[in-house]
Write a structure and sequence with these properties.
- By secondary structure, the protein is α/β, with parallel strands linked by helices.
- Helix content is 45%, strand content 10%.
- Among the domains are: 5-98, no CATH class; 224-284 and 452-479 and 497-559, P-loop containing nucleotide triphosphate hydrolases (Rossmann fold, 3-Layer(aba) Sandwich), CATH 3.40.50.300; 290-435; 562-622, no CATH class; 661-735, no CATH class.
- The chain has a six-stranded parallel sheet with strand order 5-4-6-7-3-8.
């Protein structure tokens, strides 16, 4: 049985878990059996056998690498296990074949011709296999393009191209002039790539390619090559999506003939996928797996629901009931949970009694042999045969993608059981969850007839062909990626073709990154567009890739203009509506053009525009009194919100857009309330600090589970509250006598009243300490806390407070973070009294801005999770709201 990659990693992880810790260095003993270390060892074994290095060879090399000492013995045990189990992995099957053929050349089959493609990506083991095979053949032909050697991290090297004559000096003899023992044919014409694209690709490589045979002639003249740099990642994504839309609608280029490639999956693809979804452009979902398809996820959730009695099992039951196969309403799901919780009846029984498809579903949840005993393929057939609602996949024409996913899943399980006859659905789910397992189905789980954009990594571009290629997120540090790529075990030192010194290795990496760019660019027949963001992923420091000037050549890299400054023809109804509205409201246009835009908007329903009355901003006209009601009143939290982003402050805090009740806010209020109550009672009635027991008893008395979504969520929040409150008492933080609890503090600033509430004001040596509890687990930097507007306001207002002034001068201000679990200290952040005047100046600046209703946007890292981003004109999704 040939193991897949994830199966090999899972097996090695199992074997490592049985190792004697004393046989391994102290530095890795704690990692034995972990998924991370299993991947390290798997990679080491793969690379070793690809280089035809056996355990004895590694033992010799380990003389200079103590961390390799236990690996040879493990390799022998691993190989013995494979032999006993009748299994083999990909690298071992080639290394074993080389060993057999070298010891007995007559075992090689006789062939008239041997043809090898992609020879520039061969490993030492593959070359060794080919050397053995050529002893029984008369004709050997290999095809290679050194420009496209991009898999050195897998042990491949383009050196095999330049060393071909030496490696096969005993092979059948050719008759080429100037060669010895073989004939070299240089293929000089590309039958795909246009002249401009090919020239740009060659500029990137700088012709630093080992084994390069000569110049390549393009397929045709012309071709489009562009490089654009944007200010924000969101705008880069939006521009590419719009350009794809334009190419598809105006030039009739099929979506399947457009490829978008990136160097890293971790940065750009999710944002780009969201933009494509908003435009309704079909595309390959980044990192999409068969296991994530709804029909397959239903089976995996059903497995967990049937075999896990804990919290995860309950969550899986909810997903099964509310999912596309059962389609229970939220009310029905909650009622089933309520009855099960109140009566103690097993939830499978309640489901059988209360859901229209409940009886067969309840039976699957109660009797689990299909999940734990049957072979996986039989278990899937059991679900199909016994759950009537799942057969909606057959009858509903709109569920073609789910049918395709189910078919692929069935095939994957059948092929998996051929290699692992006794493995169950539960075994498969454990692989999927723990090893990122994904067997490759022969039948696609995507609708075959759907025209879709290919979105992938640059390495995945190999072997593909498109009319237009976009290379996105081309920023320095990402592409080229010059990180050392050295694993914990230093696997790259097994590969003889890789430089050992750091400088030499970085140069090698740069050359391979150049070839990677060449490979991706030459996937395109007619156009290549490179894009980058000059300010990082959102706003920050970003530098476009060093490759962009090489690609652009004599042309300049285009600094992409801001959205809305170009009068582009619209492509979609929503764009047409926004375009016409901008014209209608633009006083700089001729009256006839503005009237024409209004007339088209009025008749827009004829071409799928919305009715005028439905436009954003077309509500009944409100009072023209501004956003801020008079008299103006402000608080420290409002001030901090305004300082971060005035636009968000206006939309969120004043217009209440995106208002929602957060369990985190409810949690914070609850903890504050408990501490205030028990401290007030303890000091007023007993003249002492409160105790942990008193606080936890009051927490139990006042805790309302429904405020946190009921069980089991409420129990989790309650436990968190216990930990947070207990930590305050463990560190004896309440020992000082408070002179104020939940103390209201006010201050008049330029005619505007500011008011805040300090959680606690203690009497300490030299004066008063103002405390604000924070129940989040993330604290600001020391520098930010030292200049905190909130603590600074409390400090300034306490100076002006008549009663507090009699108790003493404020000398300290602190944030307390009892939810942070630190072993050596209680987490606090302190205000710097020397910065009080600076805080007062900032308060006056904010006051003036709010009174003048100045609400400019301030893009920053917080924009990614901003609740009002969809109506903020700084971003593409919010532009229409303010057209």
């Amino acid at each position: 049985v040939l193991l897949t990659g994830p199966e090999q990693t899972a097996l090695i992880r199992t074997l490592l878990g049985t190792e004697s810790a004393g046989d391994w260095p102290v530095s890795v003993r704690g990692l034995l059996g972990s998924a991370t270390f299993a991947r390290e060892i798997t990679d080491f074994v793969l690379r070793a056998w690809e280089q035809l290095l056996n355990a004895d060879d590694i033992e010799h090399l380990a003389v200079n690498r103590q961390d390799w000492d236990p690996i040879p013995a493990f390799m022998r045990r691993y190989r013995d296990h494979l032999v006993a189990a009748g299994k083999v992995d990909y690298s071992l099957v080639i290394a074993s074949a080389v060993g057999v053929l070298r010891s007995d050349p007559l075992q090689a089959p006789f062939a008239d011709y041997i043809l090898v493609d992609e020879y520039q990506d061969t490993t030492r083991a593959q070359v060794g296999l080919l050397q053995s095979l050529t002893k029984r053949t008369e004709h050997l032909t290999v095809v290679a393009d050194p420009y496209q050697s991009i898999f050195s991290f897998r042990g491949a090297t383009a050196r095999h191209v330049s060393s071909f004559g030496d490696d096969f000096s005993n092979a059948p003899t050719g008759t080429a002039t100037g060669t010895s023992g073989y004939t070299q044919h240089t293929l000089t014409t590309s039958f795909r790539v246009s002249a401009n694209v090919l020239a740009a690709a060659e500029r990137v490589t700088a012709h630093e390619v080992e084994g390069l045979a000569g110049p390549v002639m393009p397929a045709r003249a012309g071709g489009r090559v562009e490089c654009l740099v944007f200010e924000q990642e969101t705008r880069e994504a939006e521009w590419i999506a719009r350009e794809i839309h334009r190419l598809h609608l105006e030039q009739k280029i099929p979506l399947s003939q457009i490829g978008v490639f990136v160097r890293s999956k971790q940065r750009f693809l999710r944002e780009f996928s969201r933009v494509l979804e908003r435009r309704g452009i079909a595309h390959d979902i980044p990192d999409s797996r068969l296991a994530d398809q709804p029909a397959v996820r239903f089976v995996l959730d059903l497995l967990t629901a049937a075999t896990d009695g804990g919290i995860e099992g309950l969550r899986s039951i909810r997903r099964v009931l509310a999912g596309p196969m059962v389609e229970a309403t939220i009310g029905e799901v909650r009622e089933i949970e309520r009855v099960a919780a109140c009566t103690g009846v097993p939830i499978a029984t309640v489901i059988a009694e209360r859901n229209s498809d409940g009886e067969p579903l309840g039976a699957l949840l109660a009797e689990t042999s299909w999940a734990t005993d049957m072979p996986a393929a039989d278990g899937l057939w059991h679900i199909w045969s016994n759950l009537p609602s799942i057969q909606r996949l057959v009858s509903d024409p709109s569920r073609g993608s789910e049918r395709a996913a189910w078919t692929s899943f069935s095939q994957v399980l059948s092929r998996w059981n051929e290699r692992n006859p006794a493995s169950t659905l539960l075994d498969y789910r454990d692989l999927v969850d723990n090893e990122d397992f994904e067997a490759q189905p022969l039948l696609s789980y995507q609708a075959p007839a759907e025209d879709r954009v290919v979105v992938a990594t640059l390495h995945q571009a190999k072997g593909l062909e498109f009319e237009v290629v976009f290379i996105a997120d081309a920023v320095e540090g990402v592409f080229p990626d010059l990180r050392p790529r050295d694993s914990y075990l230093g696997v790259r030192h097994l590969l003889a073709h890789l430089p050992k010194d750091t400088a030499g290795y970085r140069l090698f990496r740069l050359q391979e990154e150049r070839r990677l760019a060449y490979t991706a660019m030459t996937r395109a027949r007619s156009a290549v567009i490179w894009t980058a963001t000059s300010a990082g992923e959102l706003i920050g420091t970003g530098v476009p890739s060093r490759f962009l000037p090489l690609v652009a050549g004599d042309d300049a890299v285009i600094e992409a203009v801001a959205f809305g400054t170009i009068d582009r023809l619209p492509l979609t109804p929503s764009e047409a509506e926004a375009w016409l509205r901008r014209k209608a409201s633009d006083p700089g246009l001729a009256e006839a053009e503005r009237r024409g835009a209004l007339a088209l908007l009025a008749r827009g329903t004829h071409w799928n525009l919305r009715k005028v009355a439905d436009f954003a901003g077309m509500r009944d006209r409100g009072p023209d009194t501004g956003v801020i009601p008079r008299p103006v009143m402000l608080s420290p939290s409002q001030g901090e919100s305004y300082a971060q982003c005035p636009r968000r402050y206006a939309l969120e805090r004043r217009l209440h857009i995106g208002d929602s009740v957060s369990p985190y806010a409810t949690f914070g209020t609850m903890v504050h309330s408990v501490l205030e109550h028990v401290e007030r009672v303890a000091w007023d009635n007993h003249g002492r600090p409160s105790t942990e027991t008193e606080a936890l008893e009051y927490l139990d008395e006042t805790f309302v589970p429904s405020d946190f979504g009921g069980e089991p969520f409420a129990r989790s929040w309650h436990n968190r509250a216990v930990d947070t409150i207990s930590r305050i008492y463990e560190w004896n933080m309440l020992a000082n006598e408070p002179v104020g609890l939940e103390e209201g503090l006010t201050m008049e600033v330029d005619g505007v009243r500011w008011r805040g509430v300090a959680d606690r004001i203690d009497r300490v040596d030299g004066g008063l300490r103002i405390v604000d509890y924070k129940t989040s687990t993330t604290a600001p930097t020391l520098k930010d806390a030292a200049a905190s507007l909130q603590l600074g306001f409390y400090f300034l207002a306490a100076r002006r407070h008549e009663r507090l002034a009699r108790q003493g001068e404020p000398v300290a201000g602190e944030f307390w973070y009892p939810s942070q679990s630190l072993k050596t200290r209680f987490a606090t952040r302190a205000f710097d009294p020397a910065l009080a005047d600076d805080v007062e100046a900032e308060i006056r600046r904010i006051t003036a801005g709010v009174v003048a209703e100045q609400f400019p946007p301030v893009p920053g890292s917080a924009c990614e999770g901003c609740s009002v981003r969809v109506v903020c004109p700084e971003f593409p999704e919010g532009m229409e709201t303010f057209a």
